[in-house]
Specification:
195 residues, alpha+beta, two-stranded antiparallel sheet, binds zinc ion
C-alpha cells in the first residue's frame, strides 16, 4: 500500500472460477475492522464480473468479501462520466447538484460499479430513494400514484409528475455501462410494493 504497487485481485466468481482484476491498489487500512480499502478505478469496468448477489457462496469466502471495502470515490467519478454529467431523469447538468445513486442500495450489498449506478440530481435521487419515483427495467420513469394525484407548485408538476411514463433522458452510450436491467427490476418491484 505504501509503495502504491499494483496488485491482482483474484475475485471468486460463479462455478468455482476466478476473475483477475488488475491493476488494483490498496488505498487505506482500517485496523479496527481488519480491512483494507481497495481502489478499483483503474480496472476496466466491463472486465469486472462480480459474483451474483444470489450466488450461494462458501461461507468463508463470503466472510472474506465483507472484509474488503471498496473505495467509493471512483464510483461517483465513473458514474458521472458515463452519464456525461447529467441527471438520467431530467438531464440537469450542474455537477454540484448531481449524485451517483445506487440501484441496488450499497447498505444492502449493492456494488460500486457503473452498471449498478445512475447519475441523478439531488431531487430525483431523494425521490428514487423514497420510492416516490421508480425506474422500470426498460428505462421508463414511473411516479407513485398518490404523488401523481397531488396538487402543488411547479416543482412537483414539472420536476416530478411530468416525467411519469417518460424514458430516461440520459443513459450511457456504451452498452457495458448501461444500468443493469435485473437490478432495476428488483428495485422497481420494491417501488411497486411501496406504492
Ligand atoms: Zn433530475
Amino acid at each position: 500500500m505504501m509503495e502504491r504497487l499494483p496488485l491482482i485481485w483474484w475475485l471468486g466468481v460463479q462455478g468455482g472460477g476466478y476473475s483477475a482484476l488488475y491493476p488494483i491498489y490498496l488505498v487505506g487500512e482500517e485496523r479496527d475492522d481488519l480491512q483494507f480499502v481497495v481502489d478499483i478505478d483503474a480496472v476496466p469496468q466491463p472486465d469486472i464480473e462480480w459474483p451474483s448477489i444470489e450466488l450461494e457462496m462458501d461461507p468463508s469466502y463470503r466472510q472474506q468479501l465483507t472484509k474488503i471495502r471498496l473505495h467509493q470515490r471512483p464510483f461517483r467519478a465513473a458514474v458521472l462520466r458515463a452519464y456525461r454529467t447529467s441527471c438520467a431523469v431530467c438531464a440537469f447538468r450542474h455537477s454540484d447538484l448531481l449524485d451517483a445513486a445506487h440501484i441496488h442500495e450499497d447498505g444492502a450489498g449493492g456494488l460500486p460499479v457503473v452498471t449498478n449506478g445512475l447519475t441523478l440530481c439531488k431531487i430525483h435521487h431523494a425521490a428514487y430513494d423514497r420510492r416516490i419515483l421508480g425506474i422500470t427495467p426498460d428505462y421508463e420513469v414511473r411516479v407513485n400514484a398518490d404523488v401523481l394525484r397531488e396538487v402543488d407548485g411547479p416543482m412537483l408538476r414539472h420536476g416530478i409528475q411530468d416525467f411519469h411514463s417518460k424514458q430516461l433522458m440520459v443513459v450511457p452510450e456504451r452498452r457495458a455501462q448501461q444500468p443493469d436491467r435485473e437490478l432495476l427490476e428488483a428495485r422497481y418491484r420494491v417501488f411497486l410494493n411501496a406504492s
